[in-house]
Amino acid sequence: MGQLRILSEKDVxxxxxxxxxLDLARRxxxxxxxxxxxxxxxxxxxxxxxxxxxxxxxxxxxxxxYLNASGIRLLSHPGPTTMNTNYCAVYDHxxxxxxxxxxxxxxxxxxxxxxxxxxxxxxxxxxxxxVALFGTGGIASEIAPMLTQALDVKExxxxxxxxxxxxxxxxxQAGDVQAAMRAEPDGHKAVDGADLVVTLxxxxxxxxxxxxxxxxxxxxxxGSYNEVDYPVLAxxxxxxxxxxxxxxxxxxxxxWIEQGHLTQSTFRARVDALACEVLSGxxxxxxxxxxxxxxxxxxxxxxxxxxxxxxLREGERRGLGRTVPLD
Length: 327
Prior knowledge:
By secondary structure, the protein is α/β, with parallel strands linked by helices. The chain has helices at about 10-15, 20-35, 105-120, 140-150, 165-175, 185-190, 230-235, 245, 250-260, 265-270, 275-280, 300-320; strands at about 1-5, 35-40, 45-50, 55-65, 70-75, 85-90, 95-105, 130-135, 155-160, 180-185, 195-200, 220, 240, 275, 295, 320-325. A hairpin with a 4-residue loop joins strand 6 and strand 7. It is globular, with a radius of gyration of 20 Å. It starts with a strand and ends with a strand.
């Protein structure tokens, strides 16, 4: 008889850190290039239970070969604000059984940040770098120290709608970010001369515009809406995405298609490489130091499963979480 291990938010936070997250992201992307980490088909399935009194659900499944695990990310929205309702269910390939449920709230933010950081690392020119970070929310808080750990950053410009949010963000990050930080409320000034621009906001309208990026700059769009104006892609020499299907549905890719700039087919034809291919060296991220690069890095279920499987095994080693017998 097996058992199911359930890890809470507190448990997950105790077994994952910045260095581990970056390592898991790199290993998972390399595994994906080799065909060993796989997304389900379709990569996401939705269920709208509102007509019968429930919320909206989304289910995303993946397999991670090097960890010998598969899983399903379970999300509901809207849900209670006082408790976490999202989990990743993990199956161990060795026993063909459900081995755990892992709280996915913070874990998802951590994996998104880690995949963004390692993807950017494979695309930017050598430092020292000036980085413009749009956003001061949860994922931004995770990616800021990752960027300065993975890259040679000399200045991190933080921009948001409210000065108080920027100041609070910088104060909170002071002990973890290994670079000079400054608040820059003017988005155009934040982008001016930046080597890497990262957007992590809920903005419904573009924040980064054509004609503002210097040669060699990288824009890494990670939000769910339209943060980057289409002319930025039109000016880009290279276009990189992490998940072709999701990139064409959500965020800037979905917006550009909805706005009529691209069709599904022309969007796919415009993509030069997947992030995993760049990291693994099977396709180039940039061809020249002056290439401007547009990247859509929004995170994938293989990341959630990889992080959850690692957390489960580390939790078992440390005796963390609750266990439930499986009859």
